[in-house]
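May I ask for a sample protein chain and its fold as tokens?
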Amino acid sequence: MNSAEFDRWLSQQQLTAQTQDLIASIRAAPPSRRVRGRAKNVSGTYPSRKMGATIQFESHTVELWAIYQMENDPDVLEFYDQPPPFKINYQNQTGRKIAHYHTPDFFVLRTSGAAWEEWKTETELNRLAQKYPSRYQKYETGNWHCPPGESYASTWGLEYRVRTNTELHPILTQNLMFLEDYFRFPHHIPPTIAEQILTAVRTNPGTNIAALLASVPGVRADDIYSAIATDQIYADLQAVPLAEHWRVRLWADIESYTAHTHSGLSVTSEIPPSTALLPNTPLLWDSQIWTLVNLGEKTATLLPETGSPIQLPTAFFLQLFDNGTIALHNSEQPATSNEAARALMDAASPAALTEANRRFHLVQAYFQHQTDIYRDVPQSTLSRWVKQFRTAEATLGCGYVGLLPRTHSRGNRQPKAPSDASELLDKFIVEHFETPRRSPGASVYRAYTRACQDANIQPLSQRTFYTRLKQRPQHQQILKRQGAKAAYSSEPVYLELSQTTPRHGDRPHAIVHIDHTQLDVELRSQATGRNLGKPWLTLLVDAYSRRCLSFYLTFDPPSYRSCMMVLRTCVRRFGRFPQSVVVDGGKEFHSVYFDTLLARYHCLKKTRPGGKPRFGSVIERLFGTTNAEFVYNLLGNTQASKQPRQLTKDIDPKSLAVWTLADLHTYLTEWAYSIYDNSVRDSLGATPLQVYTDSLAATGEREQRRIAYDEDFLMATRPSTSKGKALVQLGQGIKVNYLYYWNDAFRSPTVERTKVPVRYDPFDMGIAYAYLEGRWVKCISQYYSTFVGRTEKEVMLAAQEIRQQDKRNAAGSNISAKRLADFIAAVQEHETLLLQRLRDLEARSVRESLTVDRSQVPQLPKIGIPVLEVAGNRERTAIEPAVSQKIELVDVARLPILGEYR
């Protein structure tokens, strides 16, 4: 809301002046804290089109879903994350008084009023209600309340609400995510196509998307989704996911949908609510009762009352379900005795079933008076079996279960060890073995025997001690002895049984993962042949199709430069920016620069928990595949280095290294974009390219989200300084990273002594950019001939070395452009900078290949400084002579290789 709309809303609410000032301060204040991920929650930021800013969330299944709900709720006018905290008072379960500052999740302005809202799961609220009964309370209506929060809100005439995940509809949330591209970026539907769609829906109310695409020529999935998003046609977004074309019903408007629903009119291929097709749903097919075990994407599994389960293609099963051949079975269960009989059958072992089958055959022979069959069975044994059969048939309705052998209940099943010795043994296991000290088992047992002797107790045997250790929960034992990271591999996998949004998305570009790894291969310099170490690989992977969208290879450790280049490559290849990005806790993913870039292109950021690689299983698996299928086949791979005691000179990867960074990048490009892309993956059952192409056609091309790989995009990916602006100093220009940059536009009196936004190229410190009078202008640095082509990493290393020299000499650390230029000019005398220079030169050829045709990149005017030129599909920095001087580049191949600098 603008100021006029806000004042109008305040007048409608009839709030006090103090409350109006409070709401105004909340609207003007930034978030009171920055959210962070913990052990199992995924935090992140959401670019809100309603608020025009990024909104933080601490849970991608509760708070993020709430954001989607508020974003698309017309009743919600504004919502602010992490509002200013306030103090609450309450008591815990022991009666102890607690007082602290509390920060709610959101402050929401609705047409009916304003309220603080706290979102939590129902499970977490039940746990907190036991721990803090006076803070969280559940009423008989099922609603949750927070008396301390409501008490504070009532003093201002506002509300405090506790919201739970049960209020969030998973299918609705999935569909809102699916349609977000059409909400944010309007898709133009040709008038003739829009008329054909509306005519087809009116002619056949309740038709599905698949039938509409097949019957109306020229209609694409994009047109249908855009029509739904703009309310030209209606689809129940809470019924089924929009990606399932054969299940989504279309109507001319909501009135038609409501009329057909309330009137009970039959619709062709009518689909019941999605909740009716959950696992263990009883179905009636050909007068027999079946149980739906699983309804997967490709196959549906059905279990008959007797016999083996069968599998049907999901499309065929839904077709039978649509036409009524298979229907829901709504009859009550016959009797509870069947449940008892089934429990006995489920507990029976294969050997027990074999013995029961033999007994059943003999009992049936007895009933049929076939004496020759049971002649060898003692009469008393046969009589006991017949009695057990008839008793089970009378009480449980199934005589067969009475013949199951009961050997598991024979004998004395009570523990025979003395209780005092057993309790003491369990105590020593808990207090001495399952501790971070990680004492050996033999030491713990010796301490146990000494304690038994002191207490005059007969100790249990050592074999019993180790048996008892193995019977303890192994995950908890590893957690207590070795910590959470060691126990993560033994942690049970969480299986989501309810129908929620797919964790890998429902289409390409919906969820992508970015991460870095150091490749296990040693590389050499192309110019000098010197070993430069192992390169870093940055991958960007589509979670849905498992396709490698882009990668970047460099010698520099992970930084924002790697993130920038991998996103540049993605836009260059596909002309698309992902809808959401999953990253880890690395600092390169949490800079203002990276967050600004994602917000600029409406990309949601999710931060996975630290130390939980399963949250990034897609990209972690691709790292392993890259090593196994490509890197480990190269000469100089470092597998032998993982066993240093067995390493000899003949197999030392550093002596066997022959690959250069440019060659590795060339062949890695061929493997990632061709070989891997067209190889069948077990997790998909198809190739990543095939899944990507088919899904893109089915879920929409979304051409309205295309991004031009032009100078505007390149400028958005260039970083700025920590302050974002620089002062235009008289006669010197702007100062960026210790260097002054100049452009003739700085002579304007309206520009001098003003702070202007600045950006720089981290791969060429000879130039920077300043935003003047509505456009970006290119600026030349001091000592241009020295800094042209130098990377930011190299300049920072030089500045760091100058500081170290001044520290050793007890001199001031005033770093100027002249000192940096003089220091870099003597690069051949310094090994650290020499190695960095060699690595930068190796990486230059890699960056040169990451571009597009010349026609797609706007050409800047030539002013005697490097400009971006493109020849074919290769990008190169053309270093042209300045007007007043001739630039002479350093030939690194001729530089002498000196000893280690000390």
User: Anything to note?
Assistant: The chain has a mean pLDDT of 82. The CA atoms of residues 174 and 351 lie 48 Å apart.
